[in-house]
Amino acid sequence: MLYLAYKNLVSKPLNTILSVLLLMISIALATFVLQIRSQLNRHLESNIKPFDMVVGAKGSPLQLVLSSVLHIDNPTGNISFEKARNLVRGRMVKEKIPVAYGDNYKGIRILGTTKRYLTVYSARINRGRLNEKPFEVVLGDQAAKKIGLQIGDTFVSSHGLAESGFETHDEKPFTVTGILKPSGTVVDHLIITTLESIWQVHEHEDDHSANEDEHEGTHEEEEEHKEVHGIHDGAKHGEEQADMPSIFTEDYKEEHNEGHGKHEEERHVDHDLHKEEKEITSVLVKFRNPVGALQRSRFINEETAMQAALPKFEIERLMKFLGVGFQTINIMAIVILLFAGLSIFINLVKTVRERKQELALLRTYGANTLQLMLLVFMEALFLSLIGFVLGWVFGRLGVLAFSKFSTNSYGYHFAFGTPDSNELFVFIIVILTTLLAAILASLSIFKLNVSKIITDA
Amino acid sequence: MIQTSALQFAYDSSGIDAFSFPDIDLPPKENLLILGPSGVGKTTFLHLLAGLIPPKTGDVFIADNCLNRLTRKQLDRFRGQHIGLIFQNTHFIRSLTLLENLILRERISVKKNDRYRREELLMHLGLSNLLNKKVYHLSEGQRQRLSIALGVVHKPKVILADEPTSNLDDANCEKVISLLKKEAEICKSNLVIITHDQRVKSHFKNHINL
Predict the structure, then answer these.
(1) Using one digit for the tens of pLDDT, what is the confidence trace for B97-136?
(2) Which of A366, A371, A455 sits opposite B43 (nearest CB)?
(3) Total domains in the fold of chain B
(4) pTM above 0.80, yes or no
(5) Which one of A75, A340, B112, B185 is at 20 to 30 Å from A147 when CA atoms are compared?
(6) ipTM over 0.90
(7) Residue of chain A whose alpha carbon sits nearest to that of B107
(8) Residue B79 lies in domain
């Protein structure tokens, strides 16, 4: 019986192919969209989860979130390290992590930040050790694979976030001290270093141009190094007492005092100026209570020259935009599914009509009506199973192809996901559609007049 | 054995155009030829015997089973097991080969697969070398013989043949008749042939005219 159903399908290849093709396209579209949406959601969620608020330069809040949290867009601009840390202190603040951009290596962004950054993303070291000193870096898993550097290798960064060989900071090479385990978050696609590294790369640049005719340049730079170490140590100190509310301010005071003690007046002023110039891209903040994020962001947006964006809110907005696109594709998939169902139905009706004689013959062989209907059902199920499996495979191939593209341009990787509950739902819909088509098509089997058909032929 | 009593058939319920058929009582292994011109209801009679259509009145007994007391499903089953039909126009499953057609018939009718029986039958009918041919590639004579094979492969109690020779030349006609008689003998079944073909008459001692 099964064999006969199969043979019947094969003997009418054109009809069969049309039905299967329609079904396949519909399933491929539907599963593709489902996969992309769910994986994108998961990605975004795991990436924005550690933070409630981002403080950065004025501009589009979405851009700020995209650049500082998801590391895909360009930053809105720089803000003063100083001012930013004053804005995000207080009891409500659980976590505040400054991030600074500036450079890339082979298109991979080099992010200057503190160690807490890796902690909140639970990124752990795989090989080597964490970066301790300026110009030491750890590589995200994917980043390491892409640029192919090993521990101990050095490289020089290029200016800006886009890959270009124009401007390189040849004088300050970075050293890879470790490679991180894959974490499934943005960290995988970054090169992580300390804030100081970013500052120094660019300060050096400034010095270089400013002190072109001044032979004192090198000395000044050395002094700065010390200062920078001061900050670094302070930050580390703060980490150990994560509960302490305003790390930044206290660090700053410490540093400030230190500065007073160590340096003569003139140099201090000079230095203070420099410190004023220390800029970061943004500060990522986690509040103890999400309400805090709302209040604080309103305050920052209204009262300061900086802006605060709420990642969760911005991403929800983004997904709403994308949702329209997904919805459109979904509707297309449903329409095609309807056509596939219709095609299967027409196919079956034709089968039943054309094979009336054969069905009647089977009745004379002793097959009953139910068995004949079963035959039609099996043909239909064959069609839909083949269509579904092919469609599913093509959907997955689509995801893989898309993943390749998105990994290259956004560092977003989409996995070959196992069948999920949504797809089970699609499968059930397909089977139900098929069964409905089969039932409608096989109704005439009940009225099959065997005697007449046999005689008329 | 086949028995009928007071068989009547009508296409519509008014019963105006009803056909009446003579009672027959055929002991086991006996053959019967039913002769008559076109339009007297020969085929209708045969389909009544096969239970393909219900009679208006009267009963059909085959091997002591009253056909019109069986349910639809039981009747299908009974027909499959105990009746072999051979049609005037040959019917096959087009998407299957000759051999597949035979196997399918066996599967549906008796749910078993008697290879020895099949091969012997195909040899008798001279179809042994055509097993994997699609049925629509067969010649008229080959189709007629395959039709016979399909009618008797499951060793039915009753073989009902509707004009089995009308499309055949004299030589093939002779051959088909003798094959049918031989198979009926092997299967120990009743053979009932309806035809208007007078050539067949001499081969059977029992015949009735409609």
Answers:
(1) 888 888 888 888 877 777 888 888 888 888 888 888 888 8
(2) A455
(3) 1
(4) no
(5) A75
(6) no
(7) A1
(8) 2-209
